[in-house]
Each structure stands twice: as structure tokens, then as C-alpha cells.
Amino acid sequence: MSVSPKPAPSPSFLGRAGPLVLARLFTAGLTLSIPLVLARVLRLDEYGTYYQLFLIATTLSYVLPFGVAQSLYYFLPRAEAKRPYLGHALLFVTGAGVVAAGLVWFFLGHVAAYFNNPALMEHRAALALYTAFFLGSYPLEISLTSQGKTKASAVVYLASDAVRSGVMVLPPLLGFSLHGMMIAVACFAGLRYVATWVVSLRGSTGPLVDWKLFKEQLVYAAPFGAAMFLAIPQQNAHMYAVAGVVAPAVYALYRVGCFQLPVVDLLYTPTSEVLMVRLGELEREGRLEEGVEAFREAAGKLAYVFLPFAAFLFAAAPEFVGAMFGQKFLPAVPIFRVSVLGVVLSILPMDGTLRARGQTRAIFASYLVKAVVTVPLLWFGVKHFGMMGGIASWALAEVVGKGMLLIRVPRALSTPERKLGLTDVIPWRELGQASLAAVAAGGSIFLLRTGVHDTWMNLPTGFLWRVLPLAVAGLLFVVGYVVGLYAQGVRPWSALQSLRPRRAA
């Protein structure tokens, strides 16, 4: 009697995120170049105007999709006929894009008056077109990732981010300034919108619209969409509040202080997306009890990256801001150090877990509380402490919101046979090991700065000399962090290798 061979164990589900991580890693440098190049080729007031234009576009682009595009992560892994869900998302965001363009066209004058920046009106048409098309193309990568096509999604991320970086950087470098850049990004968004329809629907089956399924999709999306309606304005409220009380040139300093390297989006977003798909698969297969292990695995791997990253940015803030943006932006260092808290708060993929389990109302509740908390915090903070009050208000509100999400995760991952508590879902060992190593490595940078401060101050001018202190601090930190992990018995490459793409045997 022949015996069938046992199937080879499947690789960690996080291996699926590998292509997305690699694609974003490749384009992260290009994306990072945008604000760095513009900081050098635009006047300080133009640089502030650039940030204000994209603050408006980003707010509308994340609020108006109302969670319909994100609902694809929930429905597509469970659906046989995928075309209706894709069609609903594409049509909905197209309509939302038209609404966004109308809002920009009719209300940009009021926003310009509030920001005390009439230069915004010079870009009204380009901003309206860019916002409409970019919002309409929102489901592009989502549609591929939610169908398990992570390699295709990675290719799209790669191409889209590369072209976007080029059209934002080249016009100012060629002397077309901010106006030329806005026209270029509007054209790019239009091409991306066309590509979204072609790529998203390719190979799908079923009718384009099914009103019964659309109602089901909208009911699922509504709580999350309402949460975004609160969350995005709340997250950006400190930027609007500060923009309303300072000149565009000073606002440029504040936005540099709020700047974060794309490492969080590079790792958190694809990891959270793949976790959502994995939880959907486990539910369909009747193995939901394995969900808590998937959550802990994802959070543990993120902890080994985000904790040291935050510690390095906090410790090396003067070197980082000086090297990346120039010495004229050094007043932004205290604001930058507070904003680093956002990296730490991204370790636990809580919102993705709750969305995968259909608990979008919990997300809405957390964002509602954050919005309520933000208003008095901003009023008091900006009035009495200016820009530092603005960033501190944001940080406190984020802690409150993340705490509310965290207390709902154990219930979302529990099963009738196994009730989980808060201690069951947090990867305590990984958090402890990463924290000890990161704090020790960060302390070494403060000691280095104390010993060589005069040397750094007397370095020759020029970009390479400005980067030298950051490079030395980075090398010292990496060595210290790796040694700290090894001292605790952790092999860094082994801890992170599940994020690289792997094939099942």
C-alpha cells in the first residue's frame, strides 16, 4: 500500500508580503527624494505651499472612499465571483473623485484665506484634477493584494511610485517650479486612473454591479468609512491648526518636523494587508484559533524593526534633519522627536485585524474618541505652546486611539473554545528584546555627540560633509543594536527572514 507523502509545511504567511516589501523598499528612496529635493529647489514659502496643497489632497483622498475600496480585503478572499465587488469599489471612488474635485474648486478660496496663503489659488485646477484622478485610482494596489496577487501588486507599486517621484521632482529641477509640478502630477493621476480600471478587472468574473452585494459591501464598509471620515481630519487637524496661525515659510518648518521616513508604510501596510487576507482564509477554513499566532508573528517582526528605527530617529534627530533638509531646518528637531512616537504606535497591526474580523465599529469608536479628544487638546496646545503644542496634541490623541483599538483585539481573535486576554496577543518577548537593544544603541549616539560636537560643528560645507555625522551615528547605532540582540540570544536575520518572499515546497 502506497502512502501519500505529507505536504510540506507552508511558509510563514508573512512571506507573502515579501514582494510588496521589496517593491516599496526599492521605491522608498525615490519617494523620499521628493521632499528632500523640493526643500532645496523651492523657496521656503513655496515649500510650505507645496505641503498645504498635498495636505488638502491627502485629506480628501483618504476620507471620501468611505472604506469601500478597503472592503475588498474582506470580501475578495471569501468570494467566488469577484467582479461585482471590484466594480462597486471602482464606481464608488470615481464618484467620490468627482465630489473631491468640486470641493477643491469651490472651497479652496476659503482654505487659502484661512491659511493666509493666496498662492494656493494659482493651483486650483491642477489640484482638483489630481485629487479626482488619484482618488479614483485608490483601489489599484488593493484589488491585487486582496486577491493574493502580491507579486503583481508589487510591480504596480514599483511602477506607480517611480513615475510619481519623477513627475514631482523633475519639473522643479528643470525650472518649472511648483506650478509645473502640479500640472505633471495631475497628468500622472489621470494615467493611473485609466490603469486602475484595466488592471483591477482583468481576469475577474461576474457582473460589474450587483445591487444586493453592493448593499452588503456598503454595510460592511460604512463603519470603517465613517471612522476614516473622523480619523483622517483628526490626524491632520494639528497641521491645519498650525497652518492657520503661522506663515507658509514657518509652516514648512513644522512639516519637516512631522516628516517620517517611509519605513512604517514600507513594512506596516503590506504586513497588515497580508494579515487581513490570512485571517480571512483561516476563518473560511475553520481554523480561526490560529489567528492569534498570526497576529503575534506580525507584531513581533515589526517590533524588531520599528523600535530601533524610532530610537535611532529620536537620538540622531539633529544629524538627520541637518543632513536631509539642511541646517536652516534644525529648529524642527524638537517637533521631529515627538513625531517619532508614531513609529512606535505602528508595531501592533490592530486596525487590520479588526477589519478582517468585521469589527469596523470598534475602529469607528476609537476614531470618534480621538476626534473628541483632539479638539480641546489642539485649542489649548496651539494657543499656549504654538507648534510644539500642535504636535504634542496629535501624539496624545494617537495614544488614546491606539489604546482603544488594543483592548478590542483579544475579543476579535478569540474563539468559543479559547477566550483571549490582552497578555495573550502581545509579543512580549520580542518587544522586550528589541527595546533593550534599541535603548542601548540610542544612548551611544548621545555619548558620541557629546564627545565630537565641536568636530561636527567645524566640518566643511557641502552635502557629503553634512551626511557624515548621520552616517557615523547610523553605523554606531546598527552595530550597537545588533550586538544588543546577539547578547540576548536573538539572531536579527532569523528574526526578520519571514518578511522575504518564499515558495512553498
TrEMBL record:
Any GO CC annotation of this UniProt entry: plasma membrane
Keywords, ordered alphabetically: Cell membrane, Membrane, Transmembrane, Transmembrane helix
Localization per record: Cell membrane
InterPro entries: Poly_Biosynth_Transport
Membrane-protein topology: Multi-pass membrane protein
One Pfam family recorded for the sequence: Polysacc_synt_3
TM helices/strands, residue ranges: 21-42, 54-76, 88-113, 125-142, 302-323, 329-350, 362-382, 388-410, 431-451, 463-487
Main localisation: membrane
Protein name: Oligosaccharide flippase family protein
